[in-house]
């Protein structure tokens, strides 16, 4: 016989009929009094038939600690009848020995570095046999119900457990068109920064695609950037807010939405593009922002014409890089009212299909796999993810690269890269997308070479932060990783040299 005993005024422990426990409890009560411990466990005691330990769980300054733990070998075979022996194993009433026992045991109980909470007792339920089956079932049911509620808050899902991404609410564009709602700002003293502000978190793949295009096209002059980081509660908060933002109490992206769209009640997602001149939100849809930058890019063949036609945008230092874009978006369905400008747009409808597949099966596909709340939803998403990646591998092999369309960089490359960049290091473990690996070079040799090529393009490493991304994902998606432990690897090295 052994017991877990609460040392508070718990009726069960005294009525347990276990010889010596009354004295044990009395000893700890005296101890508590001497040490001025005001609160104590009222959780009661649990008696088990199996051999094991005697443990006392006082609440010490409000925190439950294991106060004493002894194996059966250390106590007499009839501990319940051997009160003298029991006393010897319990904290004595002497201040010195009892405090060392408590201190030692407090160390044993461990510390959670983040919250400062002492870790709780261990009941060892799974070792206790059939008597605990009901308790285990109840705990599982309770835990899963809470998990489903939390998952649904994090990622709304259908009745079949399939993740359903909420639509983006703001779909405006910065445009060169006459009378545009959000015009390209006039150059002032050689710079046009200062009007549009892009709120982005480096860990977010949707922000990453926007930052990639901004960097590749050298359009930093058009959009200022306010960096965000995820807070432990999962809300984006501003890193080093400007003095204006601080003055207006703009600390999180939620505050930003409130400031620029007071009546908005939806998800406060990043990326977010705002017009600081009119105080309005331009867009919170990454595919639209990418498309907008592609449309505003100075294509090599346009450079002379552009210098004449449009003095408003400083010639971008594009060093020959241009990004081909499709007819439709690589994100949520685009605004049908919007007409793309045609220069630089692909006439090949294959690009649209490619963009659509990359979005639904890969970019959103990893989220559909990771946020699925049923086995079938996860399997479906995972299968379509890897079959789409197989198709990308085959395409790169067929075209001979270096890009998905062959020699022309396109939206397809900038949309695919952020997901491939995170696949091994984050999604494989956190979202259970581990069927194949990119960085091993065995499953996807062409994709692995392609990813390193994209990473090694000018400006890309500066906006691609794998270490920060891993930490952000593993510590901010609480329902997926409540322990918030960040795995040690894998850690693909995208800077490895290319052989060709
Ligand atoms: N459709 C949006 C999706 C953006 C998105 O889901 N962003 C995530 C970060 S990776 C976010 O801000 N989530 C916060 C939330 O859902 O509350 C886009 O592509 O721009």
From TrEMBL:
Q: A GO CC term?
A: cytoplasm
Q: Which CDD domains match?
A: GST_C_Omega_like
Q: Annotated region Disordered: where?
A: 74-109, 327-348
Q: Which residues form the GST C-terminal domain?
A: 344-473
Q: Which SUPFAM superfamilies does the record match to this protein?
A: GST C-terminal domain-like (SSF47616), Thioredoxin-like (SSF52833)
Q: Does the keyword Transferase apply?
A: yes
Q: Where is the composition biased (Basic and acidic residues)?
A: 74-84
Molecular function via GO? glutathione transferase activity
Q: Which InterPro entries match?
A: Glutathione-S-Trfase_C-like, Glutathione-S-Trfase_C_sf, Glutathione_S-Trfase_N, GST_Omega-like_C, GST_Omega/GSH, Thioredoxin-like_sf
Domain of life of the organism encoding this protein: Eukaryota
Keyword tags: Transferase
Query: Can you name this protein?
Result: Glutathione S-transferase omega-like 2
